[in-house]
Amino acid sequence: MAIQAVPGTRSRPTSAAKAVVFASLLLTVVTLPAAGLQETECGDRASLHVLVTDESGALALPGATVVLRWTDVVLRPIRDPAAADGRFSLCIPRDASGATLWAEFGDDSSEEAVVTFEPGTTREVQLRVLFGTVQPGRIVGRVLDGATEDPVATAAVSVVGRPQEAQSDRQGRFALSGVPAGEHSIEVRRIGYASLRYPVTVIRGLTTELEIGLVPSPVEMEPLVATATRPRRLEIKGFYERKYFGELLSGGTFFTVEDIDRRRPLRISHMLADAPGIRLRCPGSGRRGCWVESSRAAAGFTPGGCELKGYLDGSPISVRDLDTIVLPVEVAGIEVYQGAGELPPEFGGYDARCGAVVIWTK
């Protein structure tokens, strides 16, 4: 049965799920060729077929990125390209019964689709990428108990005056896509809690992130809301997903633009040296020509440290050149990985066995 993409919520595990992360990661997600996938190839598991098209639904978009986040199991999100015919297929883990997915093509994306799975069945989803010169904004966040800070599930979140409504998942997470830029009022309702209305500013092409603390009805205290915005470009590049799971699993160090503004380093190498296990090398005067290296030994290198691989906006670059071609004020995000064990697949390779430094500009 085919379903159309509709706005939904995205979910990620909270720190409370840390104890079960490693066991859950043992679940296998098999990505299969987009064409010719038969139900029997997934056995008694559910299968998913995705077709990515333009807004009209008539033109397939080859190479579009399909993003899938699980709503009921602790697994890394999937972020893989569609095939040449715009199709993407995979077998669903046995313990998974739901997911949120969307498609991205350049700086544009589709609306989100919420999908449920049943063993032995096939779900077909068409994701239509919305192109246009006017980009709406997006609101994402978490709903927590203001007293205990526990996630609040099934809270209804909406923008006042608009029909779209999202429901928080088991981790308290929600997402509202396609919100027009401007001043809005967000409303949150949940039985057992005082309802909340809070003003929020949505910026065109950016994501506004909220952390909402609902107050149980008998308790007299003010609701708590923390607001932040983050670049849409870093979302598309997967920076925030890698940051979330990297911090959850102790895999990598991440610096946002707020961290860089707070530190105010003179050079990028000075900021990178703040990462644990990273040391600064400054031959000669110590004020020019500096670079960073991992303090860990790697196979084939002299014990005591080896040079990290560098990336600038996804393209390989010598880590020794970073100080000369990019300034701290130009940087939106930094990822630092020590050794191959911490590296995401997109930054791996034989020449990255000492780790990698990934720089994203504004």
Give your account of this protein's structure.
The protein has 3 domains: 2-130, Sandwich (Immunoglobulin-like), CATH 2.60.40.10; 137-230, Immunoglobulin-like (Sandwich), CATH 2.60.40.1120; 251-361, Beta Complex (Ferric Hydroxamate Uptake Protein, Chain A, domain 1). It has 6 helices and 26 strands. It has helices at residues 18-24, 232-236, 239-248, 257-263, 268-272, 322-325; strands at residues 2-4, 30-32, 47-53, 65-70, 78-81, 87-91, 98-105, 108-110, 113-116, 122-130, 137-145, 156-159, 165-167, 173-179, 182-189, 196-202, 207-214, 224-230, 253-256, 278-281, 291-294, 306-307, 309-312, 315-317, 331-338, 355-361. Strands 1, 2, 3, 4, 5, 6, 7, 8, 9 and 10 form a 10-stranded mixed beta sheet that branches. Strands 19-25-26-23-24 form a 5-stranded mixed beta sheet. Strands 14-11-17-18 form a 4-stranded mixed beta sheet.
Features:
single chain; 5-stranded mixed beta sheet; mainly beta; 6 helices; 362 residues; globular; 10-stranded mixed beta sheet; Immunoglobulin-like; Ferric Hydroxamate Uptake Protein, Chain A, domain 1; 10% helix; 39% strand; disordered N terminus
